Fold these 2 entries.
Entry 1:
Amino acid sequence: MSTFVVGDVHGRRAQLRHLLSLLPRDAGRDALVLLGDLIDRGEDIPGTVADVLKLLNDSPAGGVVVLRGNHEQMLLDFLDEGAWLWLHPAVGSAETFGQYTGGPLTEELRSWWEEAQRRTRDSLPPEHLEFFRSLPLFYEDEHAFYVHAGLDGEKHPCETDARHLLWSRNPDFYKHYHGKPCVFGHTPTPLLPLLGRLGRHGIYVSHSAIGIDTGYDHASPLTCLQLPEFNLYQTFADGHTAQFHMTNFIPEPFRAFRRDGAKAEQ
């Protein structure tokens, strides 16, 4: 059984559809994990969420897992508590707000946050809001842990604070994590330490930490990593694709898996 892990989508509906069409995934056997941040920034956020919901509803139980990202959490905090952070221009909420409400997120609305909150709440389809509230903070299978942002040292995700799972950007985790392999998004790989990026086709691998948020701009791919095979699938905004089979810089647990598999075939 394989697990296909997709990095931060951020409303890139066409790229996600193209990426999923590339995957040699057996829906009845292989798991698909999305690491969160479906919303904000992209060109079709409601359509992305609708596609993912349909994928969930059409899949066997447990076949598709979608994690909560910090962008979903910011939206929920804004709707539930009036937390202003989601409205900050750097977040990319203007695209989410505009595509759901049909109107711009103006500076006046940023300062009059109660009205922005009302319009957002009234415009979000109930099934989308219920979906955001239902998203888990981590997933685990025989291959790895899967979290949005990172782990707290060697702690199991169930023992890790939710804020850490959603928000952390800890250099110690990136550089020195040696536990069960952990696949994460949140921090674009160009911002991660150079040593873990060399020769990795845009992803980050250092010991047992594996980062697959390969960025968000016109040149950035949306990336899926297949485990335990370490196959990479990528789609770009201009429609081109890339595929790689990684043979170097593989964490030891996966090298051991390969050795065991080779022995079993002899």
Note: The first strand starts at residue 3 and ends at 6.
Entry 2:
Amino acid sequence: MTGMLGHPVAENPIDLMFDAVYTHYGLNWQFWKSDVATTELLAPALKGTVPLGYRGVAITVPYKVDVIPLLDEIDDDVKAIGAANYLTIEDGRLIGHNNDGKGVVKAIEKQRSLKVKGEQVVMLGAGGAGRAMAVEIAWAGAAQVTLITRREEQGREVAERITAVSGVPAHWQAWSSPVQVPAGTTVLMNATHLGCAPELEPVPVDWSTVAPGILAVDVITNPRITPFLQMACEHGCGVVDGVEMLVQLAMQLFTRWTGIVPEEEVFQRAVAQALGE
């Protein structure tokens, strides 16, 4: 078995996608989403995965940072990023990994047919997924990263971490309503929960500060086109949706857990079916 721990998880299509791919490759595997309501319940939930025979577990909001002290081992990516988004379970030991950022870099480069190198990146939010994406984007050669967050302490801590592990200049900017996007931005990323179904809350961006033609990226997987991406499209921006990011990182998880390198089209069909597209 494989699965996901987080809160909330109901709207995430990852279980339907993985189950369809397991079936395609003739694997008698299943993917279970588990809603872990509080941080206090995370430790017993993790402990239970071992006797239940799990091979791997995805970790989603809000536990990507909180999970680290509960693990037996973490890899170098988790050490650098300070967050884990999936586990492998080997000989009863929980080992933390992070490929959130690797998924978004692949999705961006697939969309733009160019490298992230030299881009001026602005990220809204700096939670577990946000910090991973920001670090990976810096490692991929971004010229600068600006983090816009409500919590100054969080934003500054992540900005300092980015620069420390990559050498790329990273800065914090206070969240305003509406959010003012710095001049010169070429990639604008939403790493907050805003826009997720069923609330579909819009991200309060001042679109008059956004240059048409930049790339807008959203981490939300349901719906595929969030209010943030809809506004970006209307403003003349290119977009990368969270579903594309999910596919790119899920293929890496699948390989890590099963040893099989999947065809991307299999995952694309599976996620489209899961979303009813």
Note: The chain has two domains: 2-98+244-274, 101-240.
